[in-house]
Design brief:
By secondary structure, the chain is an all-alpha fold. It is built from 18 helices and 2 strands. It has a single domain, classed as Ammonium transporter AmtB like domains (Ammonium transporter fold), CATH 1.10.3430.10. Helix 12 packs across helix 13. The longest helix has 30 residues.
């Protein structure tokens, strides 16, 4: 099914080789180990080896890494003819994005003597940035070429790092699990891109834009990996001790409550009471998204369960009623429903974070205030002001995501990137060698003609 427009013979190798060579050069010039990774600097200290941040952060990094490569990858395998591309392109853009994110985040979050210092925490943060790119990938899944995805990742990583710098460094926003910086940004950036890339004749590929029994089962693998490791995701870079412990626990209960409300709403919204696997695969994870911002705060298990419960309901309603409206009225073709899993729950998480921050008091946090809200603890701002900053941060994130997605969408419309036509979307064989496939009718005719010509020549 490959034609001249979608042939990657030169486009993909040029993109991969040039990008990786540039990354290698930039790493050689700009990047070096941090104090806890450098042999000479670490051994100048009197600390025990087990005081190294590696032993505190690496288990969380492993969990986050599994979420990025297996969780997100398999979650998107629900399309019956797009499994190779879902996992394979996820692998490609994640491997590129984490390298590019290391540079961009290092550049924006402070260089030391002209060098970017990296360690296990920078690896986690690079994975977080990659997660936002993969969320956007879900919105354009099946309708873009691998070269388009790499180009999208180049610009999105830059914009993500700018937004993260504004929120975390300039405004002093708290967003440990990334409800705003990762989920809201990734979702609305991707939705804007897919709106600009709107395909008026996508219904010609409608028969492939659906699942089959085994593809939904594969997608559930991604769901379960994400669900199990989400407490690590939200708590990976929080302060050691009670902060990390509390974040994991709040996420744990939010996910559990979300799952129950997802099952309930899925059955309630079906005329025959049957469960919809799309809801279970996606909406059951919304509790993890919604607990991202307030996870490290004193949200309480009770509050976490309310947040998760609401997130599940909102997400299912989005899949059932809002997605068709967005496609019909606003021409937003959201393949994976990222608006329902990441967009709306991300906004919910940001709002919950703002309210929780505004209610913070020394009676509740004690000396722990300096970890969660350091500017409030130092007297530089009131808790109510911190809540207002959290709300402003949501608006800033939406603004950068929408404007950035608009610009990048128009760039991706250029015909040089090898996008598939409307008639061959959601089809692996456009970009992959697919084993065990029956040849098409045209291929069979060509083969017969070739054999007849060979006979005549002999």
């Amino acid at each position: 099914m490959t034609d001249t427009a979608t042939n990657m013979r030169l486009k993909l190798p040029i993109a991969c080789f040039i990008l990786e060579i540039i990354l290698i050069i930039l790493f050689g010039v700009l990047v070096q180990y941090d104090d806890e990774t450098d042999a000479r600097k670490w051994h100048n200290k009197s600390n025990s080896d087990y005081d190294n941040d590696f032993y505190y952060r690496y288990p969380s990094f492993q969990d986050v890494h599994v979420m990025i490569f297996i969780g997100f990858g398999f979650l998107m395998t629900f399309l019956q003819r797009y499994g190779f591309s879902s996992v394979g392109f996820n692998f490609l853009i994640a491997a590129f994005a984490l390298q590019w994110a290391t540079l961009m985040q290092g550049f924006f979050h402070g260089m030391h003597g002209g060098k970017i210092h990296i360690g296990v925490e920078s690896m986690i943060n690079a994975d977080f940035c990659t997660g936002a790119v993969l969320i956007s990938f879900g919105a354009v899944l099946g309708k873009t070429s691998p070269v388009q995805l790499l180009v999208m990742a180049i610009f999105e990583v830059i914009l993500f790092s700018v937004n993260e710098f504004i929120l975390l460094s300039l405004l002093g926003t708290r967003d440990a699990g990334g409800s705003m910086t990762i989920h809201t940004f990734g979702a609305y950036f991707g939705l804007t891109v897919t709106r600009i890339l709107y395909r008026p004749n996508l219904d010609k590929s409608k028969h492939r834009n659906c699942s089959v029994y085994h593809s939904d089962l594969f997608a559930m693998i991604g769901t379960l990996y994400l669900w199990m490791f989400w407490p690590s995701f939200n708590s990976a870079v929080t302060a050691h001790g009670d902060d990390q412990h509390r974040t994991a626990m709040n996420t744990y209960y939010s996910l559990a409550a979300c799952t129950l409300s997802t099952y309930g709403m899925s059955s309630l919204t079906a005329h025959d009471g049957k469960l919809d696997m799309v809801h279970i695969q996606n909406a059951a994870l919304a509790g993890g998204v919604a607990a991202g911002t307030a996870g490290e705060m004193m949200l309480t298990p009770f509050g976490s369960m309310i947040v998760g419960f609401l997130a599940g309901i909102i997400s299912v309603l989005g899949f059932k009623y809002l997605s068709p409206i967005l496609e019909e009225k606003l021409k937003i073709q959201d393949t994976c429903g990222v608006h329902n899993l990441h967009g709306m729950p991300g906004v919910l998480g940001a709002i919950v974070g703002a309210i929780t921050a505004a209610l913070a008091t020394t009676e509740i946090y004690g000396n722990g205030m300096k970890d969660v809200f350091p500017l409030v603890a130092e007297g530089e701002r009131e808790a109510v002001q911190q809540g207002g900053i959290q709300a402003i941060s949501l608006a800033v994130t939406l603004g950068i995501a929408l404007l950035g997605g608009l610009i990048v969408g128009f760039i991706l419309k250029l015909p040089i990137f090898g996008a598939p036509s409307d008639t061959i979307c959601f089809e692996d064989s456009v970009y992959w060698e697919v084993p065990g496939e029956e040849p098409s009718h045209e291929d069979q005719l060509t083969q017969v003609r070739t054999e007849e010509a060979d006979k005549l020549n002999s």
